[in-house]
Amino acid sequence: MAALVGCNGVYDALDSSEPGFDQPPRSSSGKILGPEDIPLSAARRLSRAELDQTLFDLLGNPSRLGSANLPEDNQEREGLFLHWPFDNVYPLQTTDRVLVQAFETLASTAAQELVSDEEQRARIVGCEPTSATDEACLLGFIRDFGRRAFRRPLTDAEVDNYFRLQMFAEETGEFYVAVRAIVTAMLQAPDFLYRVEVGTEVPGLDGVYRLDDYEIATRMSYFLLGTTPPTWLLDQADAGLLRTPDEREVAARRLLEDPQALNQVDRFHSMWLGYGSLPHSPELTTAMRNETRALLERVIFEEDRPYLDLFRIDETYVDTMLAEHYGLPAPMEESWVSYGDSGRSGILSHGSVLSAFATASDTSVTKRGVFVRERLMCQEIPPPPPTVNVDDLPETNCKSELIEVHQMGACGGCHSLMDPIGWGLENYDSAGVFRLHDTDKPECEIAGDGEIVMVGTFRGPGELGTLLVEDGSLEGCAVRQVVRFAFGREETAEDEAFIEEVVSRRRGSGWSYVDLVVGLVASDRFALRREREMDQ
Amino acid sequence: MSRRTVLRGAGGAALALPFLEIMSERQANAAPGDIPCRYLVAVAGSSLGSGNTDINETYVPDAEGFGYDLKTALAPFAGGMLPSGRTYANVRDEISVVTELKIPWAAENGGSVPAGGRPDNHHETMVSPLLSGVRTPEGQNTKAFGPTSDQVVADAIGGDTLFPSLQYCVQPSTYLGSGGLSSRAVISYTDGGGIGARAMPVNPQKSPREAWRELFFNFSPEDPAEAADRDFERRLRQGILDVVRTQTETLERRLGRADRIRLEQHFDEIRDLEQRLIMLGPETVGACMGLADPGEDPAEGGNRPKVGDRYPYQVNSGYSNEDLRAEIFNGMVKMAFACDLTRSIAMQYTHFHSWMNMYELIGRESDLHELGHSRHASEGQAEGLAWHYKHFASLVDDLRNTNEVDGTRLIDHCALVMTHEGGYGLDPSDGSTKRSHSTERMACLIAGRAGGMMQGQHIKRRGAHPAQVLISAMNAVGIEGEELGEVSGVIPELFGRS
Prior knowledge:
A: mainly alpha, three-stranded antiparallel beta sheet, two-stranded antiparallel sheet, 23 helices, globular, B: eight-stranded mixed beta sheet, 12% strand
């Protein structure tokens, strides 16, 4: 095998027998990494959304059984005003009786739906049984489907274990009863439900393990696609072609060509920016989601633009209804239109984002301020202190009179961090429609002046986006959010050096999202894990 | 022998048989004194009133003692109809209403949270004192700091039932989209290390279908063809679970130590599920019989709707046919008790701080929480409570009409308490009055005649703690001592004393 040279030049000739496995792991700047530099990880259970997509890709099952059958993913992180943005936080995952039975039901429903669909089951099983007890066909199915479900080849002992269920085909004279039983068993096995990483210990690095080829494939796929590895990626793992940074980069770029990559990008942003479920009519919700998705597709995939353009771009993709909703010139059919001098630009001007973090009846200047601080600047805002009643606000005629209430006494300290941001967005109601005064109160004019204290002033979501980009806080925070999503947990103190390294290499360079995520996958750290030290 | 011992100790089906024998023997040979007691604590995620209309006009009966009058909130006690069309009879004489209760707060105690009390801010700070009798520390909410009453009861009398306790939640979603706040849907906590230690949440079953599968899958339907199908499905499930368990054993050996600990609970639950499936007996003694499969759960509604004139109110958002779900869960409760599958149930009808849309239920454009902060005021809240009480009343009626193997009524061996998130009065966080954000003037409903409780009374017990109603019910089912967490004492009128 030829000598491989890494993109950053630190990979010299590699041992041809174990490509990529004989060099000490390094950072992107070439520093040799110690154990503390390797990110912690543990078995991660698939989130509901990941299960939905995985079942679709494995079985062609579109029923979203994860969302339908399982309790909501736990995103309650204490000490924050808002909940944790992402659904994949493994340290918050717990297991109980109710959940395990729900997994059993989910597995059996998915299996039942598979065998009831002749076309689908023929495709998944991959052979035509010659009899109810066609051993070769069943064994082939166990090996093939097992490899896809567990994201690794099955051992012979494992194959034997599943083959025991053939007895039900024998009893009923029906081959697909065994298929149903095997699928039910595999889909409720922890090997399927958790992304288990074992790896092999790295000599000289205590508690650090090098992931095996299939574990790397799985990490890549769930990070970039939010689903199980496609067959070609498992084949790459079979061939040992995911071990070096270059190999992973090539594979990552190929994964990003998968249509599912856009879904994953949309999922990440919908959780981060809070527009995952909008409180509007189905038509308006669909139009808003399409608008945001079109922008993500254009900036990230079609034009591979600097990622921060997402917050500054001066066009948006609307249909007639949504254009009228915003008061923009209505196109004949869905298309890109210029924001002109509407005061809007970028994703923060979308109805989807402006609909998030509202109260049941109106915008919330406080929550929008918290959103900017916690989600876009990665600052922590504590939840309201015990003495605050946020449900029975003092009765004021105009909402702006609340400014004074919130500046009184103890409230002022925190609210001055949040509310001035929200007031700068107040001209945009909780569906993103521009307004000059409080809804139905012409006497209550909205000033629309906003300020991020210590950062600068702005008017409206367009200027807010520009201010956050120019300040630099959004750039660092966006990277941090991607890392949190990739790690499936909150960063630790030990992760800070890594995040700083990723950010500082890119700061101000006009980096693209693809460059960021491909860089993460290609880095040495991506193929390693550190196991948490256990209390004695 | 505790259930845990049975399940953990059993290597296979061998130990299941004695267990079944114990169960059926006890049921078949039960003498009157042997009938076990059953306990249920329920939660309605609502306060009693808000605004200028006093709850004396919408809730609290004028008359004290037996034969009290029924205002808007309590009107369902007179009888009514359920979503399925089934009717239930007047149950006023089976339910006592204890009013003028109070959970103390910090401001009235010089600023520090008193025993059995809460910090001054409202939402979810009452969870711990209400259900565990232990104060919520300053800055905390939505958790308990001692075991809740249903767990204390389960530890004491749940020993040889298949499910020492069951937790159900009628409202299936927070209606907030992703992001959780799922702890608003927890009312059961196990001991986390004594009073004051953070207790461990027990997540409820929110799916009626799954609740049915858990309890009644093994009961054979009467129709022979159906029974044969069910028998095959049961053997298939067992065979599959056996394969799954073997797979987990393989995995367990591969895992690192940290992950082995992390996944241990999952492995245990798989083993337990398999064991329960083997043990769960088709014992149809007395009123105990398998319930019919309730079918698919009603569809879950989307996020809570927006209120306001600009956008039309989405009457279907934020609602998952909780009306029907409540009826199905109540049927489950009755039969779980009748079959002695459990003796302790925590039943949450609506979440704390609930954003369930009330439009379908009472015709008001509001979610349950907003009823307490709006023009709907005490009148709207009374209607919201009445919806909860319709289901509580029908459960009581159902238990009254169900007989034990010795011919006594099931309700005579039960203690059921309905608790609430708040009362009506002072909001100590800002000193305002007539608020829903108050733990002044709270109330509990209590039913069942276990321990000789005398029901059908309106008892005004000014300043008593709601946990004292729970303690009364716990005493009634045989728990010794008059304590729950930091609260002590009972409501003496329930036992014919004053």
